Amino acid sequence: MLIGEVARRSGVSARMLRHYESLGLVRPSGRTGSGYREYSGEDIRRIFHIESLRSLGLSLREIGRALDDPGFTPTELVGDLIGRTRERIAAETELLTRLRRIDAADPDGWEGVLRVVALLQALDSKSADARQRAALSSVDEVGVPVEALVEAALSETEPNVAGALRWALARSGDGGPALLAEGLESPVAAVRERAVRSLAEMPGGEAAAQLRQALAHRDVVVRGYASLALGTRGVADAVPTLIDMIVDGRNDVDAADALSVVASDTAVADDIATRLVDRLAHGTAPAPVRGRLTQALASVPGAKALRALVELSHDDDRAVALTAAYVLRLRDARDR
């Protein structure tokens, strides 16, 4: 079969067939009487083998080795191809993400594009100072993509930079809470903590709704930060978790402060007092736990809390009794 016919049947151009021949990949088995290349059936099968291997991403040199080396085993080469393909996909995905963020920013002309690109690069800098400056300046930039801020906040390990990113996110407008909520489902505990801490500093109903859902999260740290944030906003749904934190001694001072904010609603105060008294009534509660619960009662108004403190002032545990008596004197002095 002559080269033109081979080209038509194989889909490989005559020019490429000649290139293969120059590299020694395929050689026509014969020549016609007029000197034209003539390909045998075996030659054509080799051409199809070459094209098949090219479709896998092999270089022509690798293809030549695969076809001509009797001892060649494809396992190592295929593994290398998988690694290179993954790297290429990761690079292309990163580029696509960056392009989408620039598009979402809707920059005004090339100057705007360059500003967004510079900001994205700074947020990804190895320098903590550069990342912090980028986070702080992002508030003044028009159209900074919130996705970039969320990604940076979820991956940031430097405390000062993380704080700047949370501050920027709190002023970023819509979209942030939903993206941060996705971070709550990360398999990495540190990422979940960064997500809930960022949500805790975001204003608005959408963030509050995500925090309410986080109260039932499997991660105790996520539940804790969510309850502290909601408690300081006076949300009664946070009360059970706040009391658990006081019992467990996890951020118990902050939890008691948040509980006092919720207790400022007189309709909720008696319920809080009842819950605290129920925990105190557990005979197996260690002395430090009973002490923390007694201190928490100090900031709960109402008759229910007052009666509980009077009883606790005569408690068998001297530390609890002294704490309750001290709180009662403070309340008495305040009410005069």
Describe this structure in words.
The protein is mainly alpha-helical and 336 residues long. Among the domains are: 3-72, Orthogonal Bundle (Multidrug-efflux Transporter Regulator, Chain: A, Domain 2), CATH 1.10.1660.10; 251-336, Leucine-rich Repeat Variant, CATH 1.25.10. It has 19 helices and two strands. The chain has helices at residues 3-10, 14-23, 41-55, 60-68, 74-105, 109-123, 128-137, 146-155, 159-170, 176-183, 189-200, 205-214, 220-231, 239-248, 252-263, 266-280, 287-297, 303-312, 318-335; strands spanning 30-31, 37-38. The chain has a two-stranded antiparallel ribbon with strand order 1-2. Strand 1 and strand 2 form a beta hairpin. Helix 13 crosses helix 14. The longest helix is centred in the N-terminal third of the chain and has 32 residues, at 74-105. It comes from Streptomyces bobili.
| Biggest sheet features | 2 strands, antiparallel
Question: Can you tell me the CATH class of the domain at 251-336?
Answer: Mainly Alpha
- N-to-C order of helices and strands: HHEEHHHHHHHHHHHHHHHHH
**Uncertain stretches:** none
Structural class: mainly alpha
Rounded to an integer in angstroms, the radius of gyration calculated over CA atoms is 35 Å
The average pLDDT value, as a whole number, equals: 85
Briefly note the CATH topology name of the domain at 251-336: Leucine-rich Repeat Variant
What is the overall shape?
Answer: elongated
**CATH-scheme architecture of the domain at 251-336:** Alpha Horseshoe
Order of strands, widest sheet: 1-2
Number of helices: 19
Q: Percent helix among the residues?
A: over 70%
Please tally the β strands and state the result: 2
Strand content: under 5%
Distance from first to last alpha carbon: 112 Å
